């Protein structure tokens, strides 16, 4: 990759605080564009709108979905806007690009009874089963993203008050209530299982692997998949489906939409700012009233 691309990725991380997943996606996309420039023997300042269109046409002929092409455009726009702001370019060649429309599929959810079966599937006679049950309870009880759950630190969990502090996209934090069922499993995990894994190493994460390090994203996905198999759930089940189910079940029960959005920590800054003005006591009452496992 060129120095300009590396500098832009660094700015995304330090100045805008984008998530690790977004940063990784932009890095892949811009590396592909850098390879295109290398093959064409062109430099970033030499690229015009026609060159960008030609690059995107190549992506389409490679079979990329409209959503993937749209993400490439977003990455390129961000890069060129950065170069214009820094004075490295006089004009942005992506300024008038049309972004392909993304189809927005409805989120996949599971019925409450199926979620219950999935969450209760791990073999809790084993330490790993207690950990897995704790992970599943937390995901469904809070609607956290997988990365937010994995990033939880011990000080982010207040079981006495019944909440966790989630750090979401853009390093924005929000306070989410935790139901009694999930809190009970976190308590059991902290007492009986976590100390077994942190005898030699303790980085302060709530959820750890057998060596005391941060539980990996792959491990979390495996926990959800294995629980789905044990529960007899057909089809692909992901951690995000528990997040969608969390929101859907609260709304179906009559919860206020704004309260649910505040607990989810939606990415739109203007919307999130409105929701965070709700008193925490209101969120807690709403949660306890409508969440199936509160």
Q: What proportion of the residues form beta strands (DSSP E)? A: under 5%
Please give the radius of gyration in angstroms. Answer: 22 Å
| Structural class computed from helices and strand pairing | mainly alpha
The count of helical stretches stands at 13
What is the molecular shape?
Answer: elongated
Number of strands: 3
Sheet bearing the most strands, described? 3 strands, antiparallel
Strand order of the largest sheet: 1-2-3
Amino- and carboxy-terminal Cα gap = 50 Å
Question: Mean pLDDT across all residues, rounded?
Answer: 85
Share of helix, binned: 55-70%
Order of helices and strands: HHHHHHHEEEHHHHHH
Sum this structure up briefly.
It is built from 13 helices and three strands. The N and C termini lie far apart (50 Å).
Structure description:
With 294 residues, the protein is mainly α. The chain has helices at 3-14, 20-40, 49-61, 66-85, 112-119, 127-142, 146-150, 180-197, 217-231, 239-252, 257-264, 269-275, 280-290; strands at residues 157-158, 163-167, 173-177. Mean pLDDT is 85; it is low at 269-279. It has a 3-stranded antiparallel β-sheet with strand order 1-2-3.
What key phrases describe this protein's structure?
294 residues; 57% helix; mainly alpha; single chain
Question: How is the secondary structure organized here?
Answer:
Layout: H1 3-14, H2 20-40, H3 49-61, H4 66-85, H5 112-119, H6 127-142, H7 146-150, E1 157-158, E2 163-167, E3 173-177, H8 180-197, H9 217-231, H10 239-252, H11 257-264, H12 269-275, H13 280-290
Antiparallel strand pairs: 1-2, 2-3
Helix pairs in contact: 1-2, 1-4, 2-4, 5-9, 6-8, 6-10, 10-11
């Amino acid at each position: 990759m060129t120095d300009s691309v590396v500098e832009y990725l660094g700015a995304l991380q330090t100045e805008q605080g984008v998530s690790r997943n977004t940063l990784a996606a932009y890095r892949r996309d811009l590396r592909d564009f850098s390879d295109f420039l290398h093959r064409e023997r062109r430099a970033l300042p030499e690229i015009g709108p026609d060159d960008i269109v030609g690059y995107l046409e190549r992506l389409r002929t490679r079979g990329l979905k409209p959503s993937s092409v749209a993400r490439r455009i977003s990455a390129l726009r961000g890069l060129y806007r950065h170069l214009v702001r820094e004075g490295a370019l006089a004009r942005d060649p992506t300024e008038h690009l049309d972004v392909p429309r993304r189809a927005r599929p409805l989120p996949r959810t599971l019925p409450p009874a199926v979620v219950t079966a999935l969450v209760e599937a791990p073999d809790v006679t084993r330490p790993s089963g207690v950990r897995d049950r704790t992970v599943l309870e937390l995901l469904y009880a809070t609607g956290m993203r997988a990365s937010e759950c994995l990033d939880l630190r011990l000080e982010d969990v207040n079981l006495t008050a019944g909440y966790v502090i989630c750090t979401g996209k853009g390093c924005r934090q929000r306070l989410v209530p935790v139901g009694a069922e999930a809190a009970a499993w976190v308590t059991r995990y902290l007492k009986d299982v976590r100390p077994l894994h942190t005898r030699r190493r303790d980085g302060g994460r709530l959820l750890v692997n057998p060596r005391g390090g941060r539980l990996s994203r792959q491990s979390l996905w495996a926990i959800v998949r294995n629980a789905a198999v044990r529960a007899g759930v057909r089809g692909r089940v992901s951690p995000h489906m528990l997040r969608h189910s969390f929101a859907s079940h609260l709304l179906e029960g009559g919860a206020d939409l704004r309260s649910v959005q505040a607990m989810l920590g939606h990415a739109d800054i203007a919307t999130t700012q409105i929701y965070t003005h709700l008193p925490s006591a209101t969120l807690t009452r709403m949660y306890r009233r409508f969440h199936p496992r509160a």
